[in-house]
Design goal:
Layout lengths: L5 H4 L1 H33 L2 H39 L3 H46 L1
């Protein structure tokens, strides 16, 4: 496979969109955590505390998703630098590492989506239980 300057540059838009999505998830999660914290301070309900604890894992995952995504983008730029300097063999290894970091970032994203979906399912079942009690 021939590695040209265009090859790593193809990932720039994809990684940029991923980073935007990860940042939006982080911001919505931060707002949810602040709201739950306020609710916990008022009620001291254990259920709210458990939700906050679960959100800590999601926050860590999002931080790591962003870290690996940004690292992947950085390695793409470094790869382009080595291609530009004529060191294509080394650039191939850098590009492979960049792709690996992107795979890790996407895998963490899948994990975080699963946790988020499970949390929503629990909340929906709680609402259904409350509706059945009426």
């Amino acid at each position: 496979m021939e590695l040209t300057l265009q090859t790593p540059s193809l990932l720039f838009p994809a990684i940029s969109l991923l980073m935007l999505a990860f940042t939006n998830r982080f911001l919505s999660l931060a707002k949810l955590i602040r709201d739950l914290y306020t609710q916990y301070e008022k009620s001291k309900e254990q259920k709210v505390f458990v939700q906050i604890k679960s959100l800590r894992l999601r926050l860590t995952l999002i931080r790591n998703m962003q870290f690996f995504g940004i690292s992947s983008l950085l390695l793409c730029v470094i790869c382009m630098f080595f291609i530009f300097n004529g060191q294509t063999e080394f650039a191939k290894y850098i590009f492979q590492l960049s792709l690996l970091l992107l795979i890790i970032s996407l895998s963490l994203s899948v994990w975080e989506v699963q946790i988020s979906t499970n949390a929503l399912s629990v909340q929906l079942s709680d609402m259904e239980d409350l509706n059945l009690k009426k």
